[in-house]
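Appendix B, Record 12. Input sequence as logged:
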Amino acid sequence: MDSHALNFAAPAQPATSRASSLLACYGLLVLVTAAIFSALDRQILVLLAEPMRQSLGLSDTKLGLLQGVGITLFSGVAAVPLGWLADRYGRRVLLAACVLVWAAATAACGLAQDFSALFAAAIGLGLGEAGLAPIVYGLIPEIVSERRRVLANGVYTLAVILGSGLGIALSGALVQALDSTRPLLPPTLQLMESWRLAFLAVALPGPLVALAVLLIRLHPQRSGAEAQTSGARPALSAYCRDHGRTMVCVFGGSGLLALAIAASANWAPVVAAREFGATAAEAGQGIGMAYLLGTAAGAVLGAAGVNLLRRRVGLATPIRVITIGSVLAALASLLMLAVHSAAGLYLLFGMQVAALIAGSVLVPTLLQDMTPAALRSRLIAIGTGVTVGLSALSPVLVGALSDLLQASAQGLLTAMAGVGAAAFALAAGVMQIAETPFVQTVEEIHPGLALREA
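Logged structural output:
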């Protein structure tokens, strides 16, 4: 009997391992899909800013308020309580609820009849998207094995970045496709403006994505490890007191980078349409292609930079790569002042993306390494709140500065390039300061990492 049992037990472990791997791949695929869906909902608001402005009589300042305060600021405010909930309750249920909220808010944007209704819908969009980063970066270590965590983080981060480019490219194609299929729609929808139809179309997949999130299963070994350590939870206040300088530098630098890239990401499609006569579809395809090519180039440059710097810089390698990328992105922002075509604008935006992607793929692992597992979602939520709060200023700053420069023929372009260059330069300085405290924090919390880097 014992020998018979052993014969049946032998193949069980590989089968279980394969099943766990498939479940992990499914979970990661769903998280990537949710991130792309979120990017599509957010980018459609950016891409359709100009037709919305003309339809509802909005100023550039109001467009900035929609993108900066309505979405970004409220997303940052909601991230902290959602991170607290993610550390204590079901991450999958919470993420599914967030998907449904931002899908409903996207549909509400398409039905808005004035700025007040549009602003309320934008707040709902920000609240729904607020939980994405704290929940996902806390969930990835629970659905994959430890040896595949860094790879999963990199795959997800690249997918999110590519999803942003894909989102705006798909948005442009969607707007064009809706006009051609208008005769096939019900009579009520045929009378709607194209930008309204686009919002309703991208809201439709929401319930399916939410259902897919609920079907994610945790990795048995990872969930078991979390259960064993749940009894000894480090205090959040003690961590903030002991590693406050690391938090301020890393989160502050990341926030300035988000502020800088948001200046171009939110306003480049508007500049392309207003200054260079590009259509919504052309702007979407141009910016989307720049995002995709910039991401591919940045991934290659980042890998090369890590290989060159790892032996000399050690644990600080991702911080150093981000610092160098910030300097290069600042130069690309300044060069935008000299562009004379939409193609030149797309090229420089792609250069900004490439400079940042080089280090961005390491950010999730960087955040996980500088935080204890039991505090991970809350600390990432705090970092998200700081980052989102700073990036929320970007659309408002650019919009308000553009309104002040109305006498200038290229006021919006000047405002976008100036805000981006200043924020990138500040981010480079803050990240340079972050190197020493970051290394000290990682060595204290995860001493094994220092040994592997040595």
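The chain has one domain: 22-227+234-453.
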